[in-house]
Design a protein that fits this description.
The chain is of the alpha/beta class. The protein has one domain (7-308): TIM Barrel (Alpha-Beta Barrel), CATH 3.20.20.70. It is 51% helix and 13% strand. The protein has 13 helices and 8 strands. The chain has helices at 7-16, 28-40, 51-57, 59-73, 87-95, 110-126, 147-153, 157-167, 193-205, 223-231, 244-252, 262-278, 285-308; strands at residues 20-24, 45-49, 77-84, 100-103, 130-135, 171-174, 213-215, 255-260. It has an 8-stranded parallel β-barrel, surrounded by 10 helices. The structure holds glyceraldehyde-3-phosphate, 1,3-dihydroxyacetonephosphate and zinc ion.
């Protein structure tokens, strides 16, 4: 089963008011857990690797594992580079069979982001690979910053239209209040849905109908999983994520891709901590890693049902 790009996935997701889950991977057990969970729900899925994941496992190894495991489970999979920092890393992934890449130029000034993204798009499209880019900066962990200061890093709707027009990107990651990691909000969780709606309306008014929007930093950081980590020797304090209902609302709007890494890490860690604490004489990696893998499978099923709404998207 050949890997696919995200093009058709996003077209269907936009029309069907759901999103495709993009889960970060870096080893065999995570890939198996995610793909088994997706197969159980008959859902398409995106597997994504950061630059540090590429360094950890190597692009060839990741590709071969994704190809063979997706074939085993019969799942439609796009293999995606997450937060690609430069053209060199983009090329490495394209040469190694990735079907989608992200170029993250969000830390450059606007014109530089446009120029560098355009260069990536030209290269990737010439090789049949789709491109995600980012505009605006994701909020930090502080939620008590003044509204103006917070909005200064949120994606500007008019700039989003200009950016899509000038770069030719296939999807756009926007900043509306999510953030990376396990410590997202100190106060009440808030996402700027009006901004998301305005971006979509303006894109549509400028000829970009059904344009797929991407949400990074979208883990929910389930308190029960944190409790499980802490009960069995962990020490994770003050963690919080994006509430499930907010994510489901986003996925029913123009958000077609929802990124989750932290939740995968937490689920795997909780399972491994628990089994090792309960069986201190166990030193067989197959035994404890498979518990982590099962936790990921359950997590992905839950996400597909309750966050993404992508059940049966492979039909
Ligand atoms: O958004 C970034 C991801 O969480 C990747 O993190 O660089 O530690 O693999 P990583
Ligand atoms: P989380 O840290 O919320 O899981 O976000 C992951 C992400 O955006 C990867 O690109
Ligand atoms: Zn991200």
């Amino acid at each position: 089963m050949a890997l696919v790009t995200t093009k058709e996935m996003f077209e269907k997701a936009f029309k069907g008011n759901y999103a495709i889950g993009a889960f970060n991977i870096n080893n065999m057990e995570i890939i198996q857990g995610v793909l088994k969970g997706a197969a159980n729900k008959n859902s398409a899925v995106i597997l994504q690797c950061s630059k540090s994941a590429l360094k950890y496992a190597g692009p060839k190894c990741l590709l071969k594992m994704v190809e063979s495991i997706s074939e085993e489970y019969g799942v439609d999979v796009a293999l995606h580079l997450d937060h690609g920092p430069d053209l060199e890393t983009i090329k490495l992934c394209v040469e190694n069979g990735f079907t989608s890449v992200m170029f993250d130029g969000s830390h450059y000034d606007y014109e530089e982001n446009v120029a560098k993204t355009k260069e990536v798009v030209e290269y990737a499209h010439a090789h049949g690979v789709v491109v995600e880019a980012e505009l605006g900066k994701l909020a930090g962990v502080e939620d008590d910053v003044k509204v103006d200061a917070a909005h200064a890093t949120y994606t500007d709707p008019d700039q989003a239209v200009d950016f899509v027009k000038r770069t030719g990107v296939d999807s756009l990651a926007i900043a509306i209040g999510t953030s990376h990691g396990a410590y997202k909000f100190k106060g009440e969780a808030k996402l700027d849905f009006d901004r998301l709606a305005t971006i979509t309306e303006k894109l549509e008014a400028n000829g970009f109908k059904n344009f797929p929007i991407v949400l990074h930093g979208a883990s929910s950081v389930d308190p029960a999983v944190i409790e499980m980590c802490n009960k069995y020797g962990g020490s994770i304090k003050g963690a919080s994520g994006i509430p499930i209902d907010m994510l489901r609302k986003a996925s029913s709007m123009a958000v077609c891709k929802i990124n989750m890494d932290t939740d995968i890490r937490l689920a795997m860690t909780a399972g491994i901590r628990k089994t090792l604490a309960e069986k201190p004489d166990n030193f067989d990696p197959r035994s404890y890693l498979s518990v982590g893998r099962d936790m990921i499978e359950q997590l992905v099923e839950y996400k597909i049902e309750n966050v993404l709404g992508s059940v049966d998207s492979m039909k």
